[in-house]
């Protein structure tokens, strides 16, 4: 029996306040199986105790072009069917006035299903984003290291700190850093300024950064990771990203993998024409993450998990990949945390 495909998609412009920054976006909901866009608190007839035969892998297209890979995973408990048919697409601080949006899902046999009807969204009429995610203690192991970083392509933290790469810029980074915890590149001072917005159900991360300090998570303990190429140090070592059947695969090394439904991965890439001597600020990154994953894959810590996208097949030359992994859970009083990985890459 073939998996259902998304239909009856609704799209509205919404924004997220992130400190002093206002991120515009598009809130999407759709029908998948018996799960309607406005399903509410009534359990869908095909929910199957949290194991419905719904697709997990989606693509979002904007203005006729693929813009984002989305992996949706959900908790089994009430009412997480609402997490199986909705998604927010970040458009950044200065979006276009109008977008045409459609989505499609890839089924377990690897084939893409049909697109939804295309919907036009006017961003000038955006309203505040709000999505209630029920609170519940997450399932995670105890006594493990914290927390993780991109293994492939190798992050700067892994190259410079864990693997002690001998490149001059890596040696200089180790001199400047005061922390050797490669798996915990996090912003400092979040106790009074929590990253997780429990009232509206999303992660605030942009408010912690000013200037070219994305690689260090704006944390002085990792300031060596912000070094820009040049100045007698050469370039950061790069990983070559080669597509296999049009797909690129990323590997994340978890030392403790949060399984709660309030956790997400977001992958960003530098804009075309980026110069590594500029360093890495949010201004040099594409505003829409090319890949997003919700809830993780339901796996445990101390594993390396892979994530695949088809959206980078046309990229060429030198780029950087930025991964933001974070969320809020009961273990942190729903105040949240997030981890930053920056990987230097070369497309053939």
From TrEMBL:
Pfam families given in the database record: LPMO_10
InterPro entries assigned: Cellulose/chitin-bd_N, FN3_sf, GlcNAc_Chitin_IntDeg, Ig-like_fold, Ig_E-set
Domain Chitin-binding type-4, first and last residues per copy: 147-345
GO annotation, biological process: carbohydrate metabolic process
UniProtKB keywords: Signal
Record-linked PANTHER family: CHITIN-BINDING TYPE-4 DOMAIN-CONTAINING PROTEIN, GLCNAC-BINDING PROTEIN A
Protein name: Chitin-binding type-4 domain-containing protein
Organism annotation: Streptomyces longwoodensis
Organism placement in taxonomy: Bacteria, Bacillati, Actinomycetota, Actinomycetes, Kitasatosporales
């Amino acid at each position: 029996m073939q998996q259902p495909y998304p239909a009856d998609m609704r799209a509205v412009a919404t924004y997220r306040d992130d400190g002093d920054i206002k991120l515009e976006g598009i809130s999407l909901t759709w029908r998948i199986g018996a799960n309607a866009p406005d399903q509410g608190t009534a359990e869908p007839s095909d929910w199957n105790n949290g194991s419905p035969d719904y697709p997990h892998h989606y693509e979002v297209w904007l203005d006729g072009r693929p813009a984002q890979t989305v992996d949706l995973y959900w908790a089994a408990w009430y009412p997480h069917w609402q997490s199986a048919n909705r998604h927010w697409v970040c458009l950044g601080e200065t979006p276009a006035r109008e977008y045409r949006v459609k989505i499609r899902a890839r089924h377990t046999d690897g084939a893409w299903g049909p697109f939804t009807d295309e919907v036009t969204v006017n961003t000038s009429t955006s309203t505040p984003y709000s999505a209630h995610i029920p609170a519940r203690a997450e399932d995670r192991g105890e006594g493990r290291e914290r927390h993780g970083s991109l293994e492939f392509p190798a992050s700067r933290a892994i190259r410079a700190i864990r693997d002690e790469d001998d490149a001059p810029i890596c040696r200089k980074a180790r001199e400047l850093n005061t922390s050797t915890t490669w798996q915990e590149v996090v912003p400092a001072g979040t106790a009074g300024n929590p990253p997780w917005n429990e009232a509206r159900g999303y992660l605030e991360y942009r408010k912690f950064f000013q200037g070219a300090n994305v690689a260090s998570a704006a944390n002085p303990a990792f300031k060596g990771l912000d070094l820009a190429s040049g100045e007698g140090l050469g370039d950061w070592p790069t990983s070559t990203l080669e597509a296999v059947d049009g797909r690129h695969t990323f590997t994340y090394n978890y030392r403790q993998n949060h399984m709660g439904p309030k956790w997400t991965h977001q992958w960003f890439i530098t804009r075309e024409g980026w110069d590594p001597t500029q360093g890495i600020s949010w201004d040099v990154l594409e505003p829409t993450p090319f890949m997003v994953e919700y809830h993780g894959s339901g796996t445990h810590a101390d594993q390396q998990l892979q994530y695949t996208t088809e959206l980078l097949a046309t990229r060429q030359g030198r780029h950087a990949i930025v991964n933001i992994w974070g969320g809020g859970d009961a273990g942190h009083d729903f105040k949240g945390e997030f981890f930053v990985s920056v990987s230097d890459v070369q497309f053939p």
